[in-house]
Amino acid sequence: MSGATITTGEYIKHHLTNLTFGYQDGHWGFAHSAADIKEMGFWAIHVDSLLWSVALGGLFFLLFYTAAKRATAEVPGGLQNFVEWIVEFVDESVKGSFSAKNDLVAPLALTIFCWVFLMNLMDLIAVDWLPLLAGAVGESALGMDPHHVFFKVVPTTDPNITFGMALSVFYLMIYYSIKNKGLGGFLGEIAFQPFGKWGLPANLILEGISLISKPISLALRLFGNMYAGETIFILIAMMYGAGWVMGGFGGLLQLGWAIFHILIITLQAFIFMTLTIVYMEMAHNEH
User: Fold this and answer.
1) Residue 125, domain extent
2) Which residue of 52, 203, 226, 235 has the lowest C-beta tally within 10 Å?
């Protein structure tokens, strides 16, 4: 990063470490190493994940707001066509999986699909470009060693982001379960299903595990797939420093993996959206 030679392990570790801000040694500041991050503890802030997730959420809002402002009954432009196609796709997904009446579900599904897709899409940017830019900014603006400026650009490779979204969906699921079935009905499903009142202990274990596993699996599925994909891109990028032959082979691998990864990032956004719709359907219907 600063002209010094780093090992393969250091290169991988650098690209998979978040730009972290927290309290350490009596003051607030950015972490310069994994040890600093550990010392900052639970309340440390992953600045890069928050920056990109908020920026991409704003981009989603801006694109759809612009399309809505320019919408016309005449021949639509390219942006309106694109937005209408996405809205129709999400609307059909909601109609196919959600049978109750709730005006929140379709906008929620649309937001999740587009936001997760945009965050996943950052995985297709060359792994060194933005970290190098962040290192240069950190050196000039903060006087930091560029090698100590960590910068992850794919928010969904951070479990804090995926768990934040999953727990938000989980909260909505619990809220609408209690709203539609009453507290007694919600607790009754957990206590008396599937074996009736005489199987209360087994019911609590089975239904409790099933309930808790929903946000955990929702978060870890997205995180695991995107983290693995980013790691593969980093491993391929390392081939560029191994000579012309390996560099050329790495370029072919990178192109092939990027094309395949387009399917992965879209599929992961679709799965997160679909499971959210299914969980909301479960919250609105009797067992």
Assistant:
1) 8-284
2) 235
Q: Is 221 a catalytic residue?
A: yes
Take residue 30 and report the two structure tokens written for it.
């950015």
Tokens read off for 159: 């479990």
Say which residue, 2 or 262, is predicted with more confidence. Answer: 262
Cβ contact 118:56 at 8 Å: yes
Query: What pLDDT is stored for residue 2 in this prediction?
Result: 44
Q: Which residues, other chains included, contact 261 with Cβ-Cβ below 8 Å and sequence gap of 6+?
A: 123, 124, 229, 233
Order of strands across the sheet with 27-30?
A: 27-30, 20-24, 45-46
Domain presence at residue 1? no
The answer, yes or no, to whether residue 275 has pLDDT greater than 90, is: yes
pLDDT of residue 4: 54
Is the predicted pLDDT of residue 75 greater than 90, yes or no? no
Q: Give the 3-state DSSP-derived string for 133-154, with helices as H, strands as E and coil as C.
A: HHHHHHHHHHCCCHHHCCCCCC
Confidence of residue 194 (pLDDT cuts 50, 70, 90): confident
Q: Is 2 part of the annotated catalytic residue set?
A: no
In this structure, is residue 121 part of a structural domain?
yes
| Residues 6 or more apart whose Cβ sits within 8 Å of residue 101 | none
Domain count of the fold of the chain: 1
Q: Does 96 fall in a domain?
A: yes
Q: Is the pLDDT of residue 38 over 60?
A: yes
Is residue 2 in a domain?
no
